[in-house]
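User: Can you help me understand a structure? I only have the sequence.
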Amino acid sequence: MNNLKISTRLSGAFALLVLMLLGLAVAAMAQLSAMRAATSEITDKWMPSIEAIGAIAEQAGQTRIFIARHVMNTDIAAMGKMDQQVESARSRFISLRKAYEPLMSTAEEKKVYEEFSATWKKYIEVNDKLLTHSRKNENEQATAIFETESFALFQATKGLLDQMVKLNEDGYAPIKDQLAEI
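Assistant: Let's start by predicting it. Here is the structure, written out as tokens:
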């Protein structure tokens, strides 16, 4: 090595540095690619599900508020307006559910969603009975249903929605951990 000219030594050292930089660049690109894939999975798959479930939960709450306002009213015109709001809220609820359905990604999530759907159907049926009493100004009966059967079913649906959020959070947790390691 001592017999080599200084220019040859410098060229060799420079070439070695260039090779090391290229290796570092390739490793960085691989890490960035893995990070992008993990980030895409979270933003394209898991987060939209959680947002959709949140919108469904919010609309469920709005529907419950409109039903409560219906029960509190005794004016026929005001109840007619509340009926329209309830129907509008239910329609929006259906469209939010349709938007969420293709986002489900696991069998367990689909199972919980089916249970949610069955419970929500019962909730609607109970509220239809409640609204019938409310339209007749039978507020004691309507209030009793609102505070018992309707409330229990509403709580059950909220619990199932929370369970779906948890499933989605658990689904992206390993990916989040993978991102932390990168």
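Now, to help you interpret it: Helices lie at 6-72, 76-100, 107-135, 139-181. The CA atoms of residues 35 and 179 lie 6 Å apart. Let me know which part you'd like to focus on.
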